[in-house]
Batch of 4 targets.
Target 1
Amino acid sequence: MILNSPIRVLCVDDNFLVAEGIKIKLSLAGGFEWLGQLADAEELVQQVRHTHPHVVLLDIDMPGKDAFAALEELRDEGLDTRVIMVSGHVRTDLIDRAVEAGAWGYVSKGEGAEQIIHAIHDVMDGKFVMGPEVASEYRAS
Amino acid sequence: MIGAGLLAIVLALSLAFNANSQWSEIWSGIAAGAGMLLAIMAAIGLYQQRRARVRLDVIKDTLIHGEQRYRAFIQNSAEAIWRFELERPVPVALSEDQQIDQYYQYGYLAECNRMMAVMYGFDDPGQMVGMRLNDILPRDNPRNIEFLRQFIQSGYHLIDAESDDVNRHGHVVHALNNMVGVIENGHGIRVWGTNRDITQQRRSGEEAIARMRQQSALAELSQRAVTDSLQAVIEHASKLVHNALSVDFVTVLEFDPVQHQFRVRFGIGWDSRIPNGDLVPADSNSQAGFTLQTSPTTTRDGFATYEPIVFEDIRNDTRFKNTRLLEQGVVGAVTVMIHGEHNPFGMLGVYTAKTRKFSSDQIEFVQAVANLIAAVVVRQAGHDALCRSEAQNRMLVEQVKDYAIFMIDPDGRAASWNEGVKRVLGYDEEDFLGTPASDLFTQSDLFKGVPQYELAEARARGQANNDRWMVRKDGSRFWASGITTALRDEDGRLLGFTKVMRDDTPRRRVEMQLRRNQRSLSAAQRIAHIGNWELQLSNLKDLEQNVLTWSDEVYRIFGFKPGEFVPTNQRFFQSVHPDDRQAIADNVKAALHGSGVYGIEHRIVRPDGAQRIVHEQAEVEYDRIGRPRRLIGTVQDITDRKQAEVELEHYRTHLEQLVAQRSRELEASHQRLRHTERMVALGTLSAGLGHDMGNLLLPIRIRLDAIELKDQTRTVLEDLQVIRMATEYLQRLSNGLRLLAIDPERNRHGGETTNVVEWWLDAQPILKNALRRGTTLQDKFQPELPAVQLPRHQFMQMIFNLVQNAGDALHDEPEGHVEVWAHRTDFGHVQIGVTDNGPGMSPEVKQRCLEPFYSTKTRGISTGLGLALVHGIVQRAGGQIDIDSEIGQGTTISITLPASTHFSPQNPPPGFIAVNSLSDPRMRSFVSSVLSSSGYQVIEADRPDPARAQLWMTETKSADIDAVRDFIESDGNHRRVVLFGNLTERINDPRVLQLGDRPRPAVVRQTVTNIAEVQSSLIAEPPP
């Protein structure tokens, strides 16, 4: 995906501080357009249809609608939006489900905000992304 | 009887011719007198002529057919007939014991008939000829010695004596013997005899035999009473009574009313001081005189009979004194007067040397014999002796009301009657006479031809047993016990039969009940393996001399057939295990000399060598004055019970072992579970904590980044730096906590690696916290250390346990020091270790510390699983664990693990090449990402290049089949191809593994893991 315009990013995370932090980080890094933050996955498809993000940063452990169910709906919509799972949980079964549901990447929150920016860029370059911690866990299982 | 018949004819004729004449009475008187005389003379003349002729015929026959008839008689006899020869004549002057000894020494069977062979289990008499006396009449049975002693004492003429013989199979045969010794010149040279098997009867009891003897004797005497002389009858009667009652002495005294004294007519058993003809005073003080004073009872026919005088012990009798009897050793007696024609004729006395209680049967028998003698006395006394004797004979039999005694004519019809017939059979005289004897038999016996058989037997053998169910007039059944005797005249012509029988139903029922009880007892004994035995104690000094009896089950328990031999104490001890014999002897001795009882378990050895265990219990039975009389005991085979007890004990022990083992396993399982639960709980807590910490640290770190980018004063930047360091520490702590969260039981390992230096950054805070405050934790890692082939979580688990153990060991050390170190070894391995300066291990602790549940710490602190867990992880990873420790020198535990291999074009992975041509770019990238994270260098190319590429990716929807084929052919390393994606057509080459275009993530992960495992093994063991 070659873009001349900023990368449009939508964040879904129930933790306001985390979303706020990522927003600041993307802002500082530059080249991103912050489309906003959703506290749950309930209206994800609707928001994607409405805002057309390039990348969605999707937390897993949230109240309300199951993140993987929302991911599958999004995949089934056939929209050209790439989703990166950003979670504090790094588990093989969660990674497998994310891949099957259509995610383009899986990043641990513990790997820091820098890793998230790298992940967004790689995904935009058409690469599947696993952060170092995620890759280590996946291969070790 | 013939005379009586003629007389009746003459009287009838005279009456017929002179019935109406006045002189008829005179003439009839003369005619009757003359007729009577004529008839008597004619009868005597005829009788004498016939007797002479018969004698001549007999002599003639004997001369002509002697040998032949003798042989035929012997061979066809229904009784066993035999002849024993003595190799050397035995002097009769020798003592009884010496004679018996020589009989056994020189006696052998010279001849016998077929019946004897059958009786002793042989097919042919010839098989028995030559047998020694001991083969047939075992000397070790005391009864047999007594039998021979009786033979000698009887003057070598023994009648109806019993012996305990053995047959061919060693089984006891109770024989009833009649035998005569042939004495020449004062030496015994041979013994003739007959015998028959009375084993069955013997079992029915001694009483039955005695009764049979009495009946037989009565029948025989009845017959002789008609024909024989008084003296012959007296002598014969004495012998019959002597044998039938088994008494020691018999006397027949004749009373002399003039001298008022008795004269001995005949005696048996007395010594020479009372010879025949000796005189016995008849004063009232003597026993004979006392008996004489008894008054006769007159029967309705005018016949006189006397009440017998019975005394059990003459020494205590106050009625009379008889020093002569006392001198002869007489103790018990029955005496009864013999009636003469008008006055008492004399006295019949039977005597015993021991106290004896005579039964009513026996007393009645003596009385009957006395009456029989009386009948002969009367018969001889006058011209009407024949009539009188018949009448008295009839009177005699009528006296015996318990016995039906009657005659049967040769046609099988009843010809006489007595009171007993009415009482036993229910017939009045007029009903009975002429009745077919077959009416008395049951339908079943009639059908079997028993009446004919019985008469035929009596005809052939003289007598036949008459013990069977019979029918009364009213149709009811009773058990008859008696004898049928053939009645012949002096010429041997059959006149008919006499039948003597009594109603023995109650006794029969008792016997049958007894037999049933015995059978039940026998069956019960057989089932329970309990036998009973009895040892008579007539000789306490030498128990061997006593008679021992065994029940059938004792034989079976000891491994023999019932009755196979006569049991003796010696035979018993032969069966006892040699080591147990003394104990039994001691027990018996103790029982006999005080305790009166004993019980013992001992072993026996059967003839086939099998050992069994039996339990014996016995009690001593004492006589009235307290002397041991007999020893009665039971023996039970308890082998099975003992074996069951042993097996039960074995099973119990085994069960206890199993329970103990199971308990240990449960304890181990429980400990593992507790440990696992502890670790899982710890992990859950750690995961939650690590996750939440990570979530919070992300925005903090982002904001720190944001603040730093703004222009800040130096002081603020310094503060920010400190805060950043703190957050970095917290981030590592968070990562470490999440490492602990991994399930410690998860031990799969497939190519996963751990970069030790990277791991240390995350693990160090956790490990430090595992140590007590004051204990220092240091690290020492070699630069450029390769990764080790072990998943991070297992590596963490392993080192965490080692550090924790070191911390526990340093608990009391003021300056504890723990170092975690790692370096590369020469063989492509990495060695990681944990060293402490603690107290060190003793050799025993060092040897056992890797065992599960071995711990030097209390259970509250340790599960004893830590080092065992580490050992397990290391073993599964193909590594090695070493312990270096001495008391006071601290401990170093080092672990050697294979180093991870990083593949590159210069170091291509052996065995496989992956070709990634998935059409979905996301999944294609995912596969490449997984391969890359597993150490493979991913190179994109239009086609696979054996020289440099491990992975070929193509955007096309299907792989170029030619490219793959070219690769396979050109690859000098002969690697297999794992193809993710579809080929345009299938390659039939086993080297190609095709996973399709839409592989599931788990399949991708597993495939990469499998490839890594195979490659690791190929690296470890390169092909030759």
Note: The CA atoms of residues 413 and 436 of chain B lie 4 Å apart.
Target 2
Amino acid sequence: MIDCTIQLLTPAVLREPECGRELLRAMLKHFPTHIPQFFGDTEPLRNRFRLDSVDTALGCWGGQFFILKQEKPKVLMQASFASSTSPRPRHSSITFFDFQLLDSSDLSTLAAFVKELAQTFHADYAMAHIFSQNELEDWLARRLETPTSWPAPPASQIVDRLRAKVSREGYAKVLWGVECLKLQTANLQRCLPNLYWLNVFGPPYVAMFGSKRLMEVPAESVETLAYGGTAIQLTNDLKDSKEGWGFFQAVRTKCRNHLDSNAFCDSALDRGHRYQTPIFSLRSGLQ
Amino acid sequence: MAAQNASIVWPAIFAGRAFQSSFNSAFNVLSNTTKLFTKLGNTIPDLYKFGNGVLELKSGAYIANTGNIVPELAAAEAEGAPYYLGVSPTSTVSAPLSAAVEATGGEVFVFDAATGTISSAEGGEVSVELLEFLALLGEE
């Protein structure tokens, strides 16, 4: 099994049940084995999902959250619906915290699935990433070398706590937290956390980077999507080995440098540093 | 049966109160008494200042988007305020809840009552905004 994650941010409000139907249709078209078992709008999920009564499940769609879960292969998805009246506008989001693939032959299907979702929901930003234990080990080693200051505990205590968390919750959940949790509007308005295995930059990012620069990024593949987004797949796959992780990192660094290093978050810079950021239109969604 | 349930629930309530009391002492803040009214229910978050932040402390083993967290997240979103969730070093927070908290511009953080320290649940340092929110509450 390969553990993956998907994140999609859209200016669309997404509250219409038709949006939920489109999401399920796309998922089951690309991954017919990923049939959810449970659904709900809060946790714990108590409602059994049945393919012959999708309308019942979509009755929960459009409130604050909509969550789907399956055990094997593991799927845990949450749609989060932005309030159109909040003083702090944000994107609506579709997050697959965990999306397991049987093997690497499913990676091209994963890329097609994410591109279709980005196209359907006119995503400002979408990504998919393949989790690797080597990536987590690399992150923990860097964390250990980064000094902390009060009120934080010493770095060694933080790393010990995260290792205990890996034992309790699995490495994929911890890696998702350190690498992907920040992919939310408030953080993207500050800087872009990183590049991932697959990145879809919607029109605001295309305007920021420029389509020529995006098309020339030295990645495995670059594709323009019909709605105006650009999909960049960094490597063919991401093997969970030192070599596989090293190769991915090298490609990622080249691509980041090509795009514009001032768009990506850098912990070495002052917190007040002004990065290059896109201009999101968050009140003019699809609905 | 009721007595059995009580023997399970009361230690958890006392542990929760002790956790909150340690946090309040460490950061020199007073518990909130303002009740928030939302479509999803009414709630009194542990710490609160209108428009600046909503903060809840939980010391349980597994914390998910349920109970009083549901209306608190709704209140934070309606006010455009960040939602902060403080948990113990051994708590597990569900991924849907972590993402929901982060989407408000807030964060899940770990409070170690034994040392009085806080850090981001994901291993970084907590945000300047959280420290400023705590300082603001400490001034009251």
Note: The mean pLDDT of chain A is 94.
Target 3
Amino acid sequence: MFLRLVYESFRRQKRRKLLAGAAITLGVTVATAMIAVATDIGDKINRELRTIGANLLLTPQEDTLDVEIGGINLKPPSDGAFLNEADLPKIKGTFWHNNITGFAPMLPVNVTVQRNGLTQNLTLLGTYFAKHVSFGKEEFTTGVRSTHPWWKVSGAWPDDNFRDVLLGERLATQLSAKAGDELTVSGRQLRVSGILSTGGGEDEQIVAPLALAQEILGKPGAVRRVYVSALTKPEDALARRDPKSMSGAVYDRWYCSPYPQSIAFQLQEAIPHSHAEQIRQVAQNEGAVLTRIEGLIFLVTLAALLASALAVSAAMATAIFERRAEVGLMKALGAGRFAVASVFFAEATLLALIGGIAGFAAGGMLARQIGRSIFDSQITIPAVLLPVILAIAVIVTFTGSAAAIYKAVGLDPVFALRGEL
Amino acid sequence: VNAGVSSSAREVAAGREQAQHTSMFVRMLVRAAVLRRGRAASALLAMVVAAAVATAMLNLYVDVQAKLRREFRNYGANVILVGRDGASLPAGALSRVESVLGSRGVVAPFAMVVARTSDGQPVVVAGTDFDRVRQLDRWWSVNKWPAQPQQALVGVRAIAAVSPANQPFDLSFQGHTIHLTTAGTVQTGAAEDSHVYLSLPDFVSWTGVQPSSIEVAATGSPEEITAIMHQLEQAIPGAEVRPVRQIMEGEARVLGKTRATLVAATALIILTAALCALSTLMGWVFDRRRDFAIMKALGASDRLLNSFFAAEAAALGATGAVIGFILGIGIAAWIGRVNFHAPVVPRFGVLPFVLAGSIVVTLLSAILPISMLRRVQPAVILRGE
């Protein structure tokens, strides 16, 4: 009888069930989509923050001081120590290699440029633009185009394997050179493939493929410094501790957390004779920005969950209130409070499960759409969330109906059947 | 039951005699709300929640961008002034920059030369204003800022070259020598680690070189910053004003994505809240089909009925919107306090939108059931079919 009551209620009151089910589906859709966005937002914003530039810097351990003012390098070019270019792919062999979004080696060398009968001493910066590098079986592309996304080129980016160069914006104006021109740089004829604008010191420099800079310097494989862009976790008290003073378990936890400090430590281990340091301007601030944005989206998600819980409760309350004549009839025929309540709760559970599954699917699609249109990447919902979402849907539907059911079972059947109250 | 009814009827009659004459229309509105307190309260509650959530989200949407921009100003300068063709900036440039900027940002001047240590090693020495740098470059990790003349702030990599045993040291530039003590070290992970910083008066009296660049952290939207740059260009003709693209573009990207996420979330939340209010209100109006039928049976015109339910809906919508607005401001302020440690300023410009939206939702939820009921004969409704 119990099952038949529930079954017939679904079969005969399709419109009402559809309305309540639609409310639950909508609520669960919004909740699922917001939970998916909130769990993924940290990673997404972290990637966007990488557009501010590299957050780690690798330098040779025993280096002399950098002497650079306004883009002009005054340090004797062969002075000091170098890193070995052949070691760089090992960056992708560290524990947190999946968090490293790119790296760009730099080698400034001094050159002389002849133009319009004038000879000038300038700095030529050797780097990777978008170089194919392989480590073990892993193939990846890295260089300034991923680590320094604010660099803009009018013309074409040079190929890392050729001898074309970029000319800094202000230097180009000064030399009255444009893309496609030929320059004599330290006795070599080089073609300018594009004009580079960075807003920094590079605007006064020539930027060339690393191999060319090494050839001019006469030191194959030499790299002065490497900018590394890594997805990191905001710094906390543990991150700031000195790894040497940690006990085994704490050290493991520190080592296996993507703090800027621990990634720097691992880079230092991977690259011989190197010193890794976080670039504090970038690393320190991104933690703060990330924490704020994550916190904001978390609170907004709470608001979304609250709104959808209320929507579901309101729909259920209305649906039950409309059926008080039925309650009156059941009670008049001798049903107890418990029997009436259990019919309603069974219906609510069934509705919550159906609406929950439909809402989970719709919410997944919505989250994917949000991910694609805002972040140009996927937001996927782990299937593990389904039971959690269903449980929340059932609980919210239950609590939403509870007050209405309590009121309904307390009705005097006479008044309920006459439609009063 | 009879006694109860007659005594309550007498009370009502007595009340009516004393009451001022009000129109039937207003009386029906008030009595409808008073007599069905429970249902009216739940409809109002739905409206209040919807309006509160909408207010909070709209308030946050406006305020959060300003808050996040301030967060981004911790990245330091987004505009930089340099002398044209490597020349020094004209005298008084700093005070003119500050008068243009007012309270819209922080500035710090920098002057740089390459000096030699006592053993002849070249090192970049910069003169600056330490109080201003502390404000501008908050990420500098400094163990002790210089407080007295002839004290230097030495980069962690430069310390080995100039003063390995932390002793006083000499620097020379074009034949002039200055004697300095180390106040503390600075660590940034970037070029500053190889520099030695002096206070500007020490630097100028030693080298005779005036500041060549002024770094500016200007607050505001991209348009406001462009306007500030334009004003700076006009105020200091001898300077070239450049944006720090690295910071400005990163900020624009991150803010853009956050804003888009917030818009999506706001739209979803407001939609859900509005639909919740709509379904509750429709249930409420539909529930009162007997009132409707009685009025119609007693000869009320369609126009009167429409305007009655519309007025009721509008009153409910407006009340809900005002209470919800106050609550929503509270929610936004709480989120501001929890997440940004700064209050969110209430935006009263949001109120008209919330008010209009609430009234539209309530009107919609009144009109739909009424237009459905209008087609039904009053007798059918009164019989409860």
Note: Residues 348 and 398 of chain A are 7 Å apart (CA to CA).
Target 4
Amino acid sequence: MKGKPARTLKVDHLARVEGEGGLHVRIRDGAVVEATFRIFEPPRLFEALLRGRSYGEAPDITARICGICPVAYQMSTVHALEEAFGVRVEGPLRELRRLLYCAEWIESHALHVYLLHAPDFLGYESAFHMAKEHPAAVQRGLALKKAGNELLALLGGREIHPINVRVGGFHRVPARRELQALRDRLEWAREAALETVRWVKDLPFPDFERDYEFVALQHPAEYPFNEGRLRSSSGLDLAVAEFEKHFSEEHQAHSSALVAALAKRGAYCVGPLARYNLNFDRLSPLARQAAREAGLGPSCRNPFKSIVVRAVETLYATDEALRILDAYEPPDAPAVPVTPHAGAGCACTEAPRGILYHRYRVGEDGTLQEARIVPPTSQNQRIIAEDLREFVARHPEPDERKLTWQCERVIRNHDPCISCATHFLKLTLERG
Amino acid sequence: VAVPRVIGVGRHERGDDAAGRLVARRLRERLGPDADVQECEGGAAELMDAWRGARQVVVVDAACSGARPGTLHRFDGADGPPPAIFRAASTHALGVAEAVALARALGELPAALVVYGIEGARFEPGAPPSPEVAAAVEALAARLGAEIEAAQKSP
């Protein structure tokens, strides 16, 4: 029997030149027969850019890969190179790195929750449509993001691409009073984050549970930022050095990105949902309590509820930042000594969107000979395509516009970083 | 005539995306370090912070509309919404247009705002600006520099 003609949905306005991401969905008889999610990934080009550069330049170069998560790129870089040189960074320097990560989670999650994700649930086309009727919420989101920016500026030297980080530690560390000056602001941010959890918990969530294989770092005592073993919800327990043995990447048509897969198991999910499911008991008591009050158990498998999980993680990041700030005693030196030599090292850290893997090979003189970078969004691509297929199958929608919008929502659940590349002023008006 | 704050938007090491920031640097060279000239990466929230407190603002960014490289686009905040269909959806690049729309919704738009977009040709990581964009940067910096100097001299 001949089916209905295939419908093709193309969502290309995600996109312009390299910064682009596009969604291409083919539907036949109410089922998605093809879901292609195109992204461009600058890390590939940066891998080439890094070769031949000195190890000391690496953290400032990789920080430029992404305007939203430069700290994650810097952190994976310095940890990988420190492993290559046999250096351990402990004590207050390690705590400052966690603090820097808190800043990045706060600003990245606040942006996504308030300006990108919330309008989907409240039925607005965009944050600025939402801002007219929910100005207080949008102002809170912007101020929360700004609190993250201020912390990042203090620790990182400047807001967007922190330049104060180096292999072995920092170029300069803050005095206790400098950090304390941000205390009131962070106290406010913690209240605002708590308010955020309460705000998002009652949003209308589609009924859509998925049986993901979650992959995240796990540390014995901490909710993970910089360090831990690679754990999965089906029992994987690996040292980061084993990453490439178990996770492969392959080229996919229509995408300059490589798509990651877990050996013998296929698609896996990284990011806030994965971290939360594997590390719920490592959240601070305040964050756990807020999660429970928001109706989340220790497990959450509905990707639409990732907005609640991001809010909980934002609360955790403010709480953890205050803990670090209060306990902080400046270290004797801003960095531990590093003697470069030939070697190789790798590291994974938890970027806001999930595990970010870096591996480097360094020559005798400290020159980078090889760089490998696996960003979270390429790891989540398969899950995103699977979500699209499942969601459309379970929620058939005859109206093309509505279906397109629903597909976009499915993608946004995973906060894909598809415009690491460039910010554009997209104009249709032409003059001159 | 009030002296505007100039905000150059974009990213270095992304080819022509640096256009706005190059204009800002040229202006600072011409007008001196005390000139009200800022640079930012162009996130909506950062931009709203950058123009807060200024009554008159000029934003310069790179543009990508398919026009001839080096083409200068211009829109005036008083003319209503930015002339393109901007979607907050799906990307992190909430840029200049989104900042204008968001600021307008929140009542935080500067009293006078003009946005220039310099049409780019290439945006690859590590690429230098194209010759067409470099020339457009010089031309716009000269024009804005002259306007600002005239405004500074006016009573």
Note: Confidence is low (pLDDT under 50) at residues 1-5, 8-20, 419-432 of chain A.
